[in-house]
Design a protein that fits this description.
Length: 101
């Protein structure tokens, strides 16, 4: 990839991520489909890396094509041996209720 993909688009379901990749590639945005970081979005196992400076244009394109987006954020993956802390009981309970809906 020739540019820095420093943004992340998260989704509620994998099929939205796959569809977003196709939509954005068809209009020549540089994107990369990656495993979704669980510490940022527990909803879906897939996320899309984008150039963060293009987030407004990305949002418009995806909205035009009715692709549902959870969130668009700045994202730089860690390169050290850090791992996400385990969620607290309260957070885990909240997540399980959210998934049950």
């Amino acid at each position: 990839m020739s540019i820095a993909l420093d943004g992340l688009v998260t989704f509620f379901a994998s099929h939205h991520a796959i569809r977003a990749e196709k939509v954005l590639e068809s209009v020549e945005f540089e994107v990369e489909l990656i495993p979704g970081p669980k510490e940022l979005s527990p909803n879906c196992g897939v996320a899309l890396r984008i150039e963060y400076d293009q987030r407004d244009q990305v949002r418009v394109r995806l909205d035009d094509q009715k692709v549902q987006v959870d969130e668009i954020m700045r994202y730089r993956p860690r390169t050290d041996d850090w791992s996400a802390p385990t969620p607290s009981r309260r957070w885990a309970k909240r997540l399980s209720r959210r998934r049950a809906r």
